[in-house]
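To assess whether ligand presence alters the predicted conformation, the chain was also submitted together with L-homoserine. Input:
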Amino acid sequence: MTAGPLRVGLAGLGTVGGGTYTVLTRNAQEIRRRAGRAIEIVAVADLDQEKAKALTQGRCPIFADAREMLAKTDLDVVVELIGGYGFAKDFVMAAIAQGRHVVTANKALLAVHGREIFPAAQAKGVSIGFEAAVAGGIPIIKSLREGLTANRIEWVAGIINGTTNFILSEMRDKGLPFDTVLKEAQRLGYAEADPTFDIEGVDAAHKITLMSAIAFGMPVKFDQAHIEGITRLQSIDIRYAEQLGYRIKLLGITKRQAHGVELRVHPTLIPAKRLIANVEGAMNAVLVKGDAVGHTLYYGKGAGAEPTASAVIADLVDLARALHAPIEDRVPALAFQPAQMQDMPVLPVAETQTGFYLRLRVKDQSGVLADITRALADGGISIDAFIQREPAEGEDETDVILLTHTCLEREMRLAIARIVQLSTVVGEPVTLRVETFA
Ligand code: HSE
């Protein structure tokens, strides 16, 4: 092989940066046989110089400032593993301006600033690789962008945050409350010291936003995503869901509808018999429905040094193979040709369609169920299943749990407004959404 190497500048030597360096070094020969040229890290940048020295062992220059690395090194591509949207955004925009390709694991940056970054890269004729930004080691970007390219994608739904999936698995397995399991997740190193983005659903929303763009050929619209995390989820609802044959997962969902696209993250009941309902612990999985292929399911590790490095390096191999190809001969960053992107509206959550789980605290009196079912029927909402717990000894109130068939969220909100007016219903109902993936 005579082609010159792909010259890589690696910015950020944290977990993923370290993993990328290690895997590229360990599998250099195997990767070169695939790529047709060597992939060489010719410079690294990290504020922690000692860590950088320990990793690179004198094999390449080390910079404290990634922008200095960019200015002083002859690079084909920068790998941005710094994170955040401040410095990382300036660095990525500077790399694009200098005509460097970019590979990044930074889902927050692309979801929030993608409408600026992708067109800037296109105008400069450089690629943005972001396989590592969604579901870690699972090659879901490549699958959506290339493997499923014949399909009209109907929807994508994923367990795309390992921290929250670990927490939900532990809550179900051990019957523990959210707060206790969160502390355990932090102790084990799954959850960050500040786990807000994970538990509030923001990280999953970044990822489903990127998948909505490549599934439907629309711009990234993170600012319009509906986001609910798992902080208010109660163990009792996990138990009732189980009695009804369902598991609760934090899903990122994007779905094509007649007048727009649904884009949402929330705890979701899924029938326990579905494969995706059985994805436990910190694992990720993404379910895609295409009109030709039907359902496809992708499973694997969504985080960690080498799984995420696997995705970073896959992007580097793509670049190495097509290093001298003009931008119009490359696979488009967002799967669709830039001129063919369509500005599809994101539907307000009230216009989305799901089944619902309702837990109502009711007085143990005759006619209660009739009142509730009438309120639902008046809204055209059909009941799929229900359970009524026997009142505990000495209690005159009990729980009624209902599952409905699919309806418009707006109709469900109206029905709930009628239900809470009933004198037999006590307190606020608990509502959760249901997806059957039938
Ligand atoms: N914090 C993420 C998770 C991993 O828990 O899945 C990186 O996106």
